[in-house]
Design brief:
Blueprint lengths: L1 H21 L6 H20 L5 E2 L2 E2 H25 L1
Antiparallel strand pairs: 1-2
Helix pairs in contact: 1-2, 1-3, 2-3
Protein name: GlsB/YeaQ/YmgE family stress response membrane protein
Subcellular location: Cell membrane
Membrane topology: Multi-pass membrane protein
Length: 85
Amino acid sequence: MLGWLWALIVGGIIGWIAGMIVGRDIPGGVIGNIIAGFIGGWLGNMLLGSWGPELGGFYLIQAIIGAVILVFVVSLVMRSMRRTR
């Protein structure tokens, strides 16, 4: 139980850091940051492998890079959706 709580906190921080790097907020606030952190961690691990510092089940460098990619792509999609309306 405590492991999941720790993973949620770390995932949220990773999503928040990615939003700060890209300069855009992820939709959904805290929940969106947690989701971006989890998906970014998975994406970064798939692209870059498992190496480097680990915290809360996330390889930090890969997770941040993956979350930055995710936030950037989501922001592009959201911007294009606003233009078509």
